[in-house]
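Issue 218. Parser rejects a valid record. Input:
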Amino acid sequence: LKFFREQENNQIHVSSGDRAFPKTEQYDNKRFCTVYACLMKDNFEGASTADWTLSNSWQIGKPVQNAANSTFKSAPTEAFSGQKVLATAKISDKPEETGNLDGYYSDDVRFEQTPAKYSKSTGIDAQFYKDIRFKAKYCLNSKPDDKFRLVVITDANAAEGIPVDIETVVWENTTRTVMSGWNTMNIDLSKAATRNKKFRFRFEFETKSDNENESGLFLDDIQILGDLIKKDIGILKVETPKGFALSTTTPLKVTVKNYGKENITGGYKIKVTLNGVTTVQSFTNALNTGATQEHTITGLNLAPDPNLAISNEKHLIVEVELNSDADDDTANNTYV
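Output the parser choked on:
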């Protein structure tokens, strides 16, 4: 589903598949935007915090409503939405503020001591998503030498060739930061999370030994968003004769895979280019999601050309593309 605005007449249109609404003439200068799927969200209003594993440095609760009674130097006096937030602050011990957040963040602590981990057992499934983004409302007040960061954790999966958990720092704040209200956090997780069947994340911070800390990090309305990959064919493997030197009629084996969430029903074509000369073969067979298909391409003359310099090998490019559907991720379409 895409929305776009016609610059000429400023009309808004919506397109879904091969249908556009309203049905009007299409202009060349469109501005497209993507409607993201929400893979995870939490506004911290529920009674259960089972999806989170929090160290003593984090709490879920209400920001202090009366700033005059708070020890915060600068912090939100209310949640961005609802009543509760996730924050590095402590639960207030003032009788009039029972259940509210108050106090500064912990001092003289290391990253490994201060995790706030989204630890839901099922994790976040982004197998069929790209352009993964972390969005939230946040307020951060920190000292110059203190560090706050966001880490993505890819769960170990031997079948996928991931023997141990992989941790990637995707955001880090290492400078003094002063905010007086809610701001938008928008972090690209694509390199760490795209196509990931199961990942989680955590916030953590590290501070120096000092009792003059600021109010720390407040988070609300957390979301993990992704762009759905509905249709996607790609090249899984290309088997070439060693040195292209078996014979002038040696076949080339190409294995394609449906990497998208939906079945491919309209067929696809494989293009093989040798030294600038392209051969195209079309296939009409369907390919279910996750399925693979091996094809043998013949008539390519894979023998070495004695006129080629030094390597005596031909330059080979193999491409695959859908016959009728748009491919939502072309990054896996070419073998060189």
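Fixed in the parser; the record now loads. The chain is about 0% helix and 40% strand.
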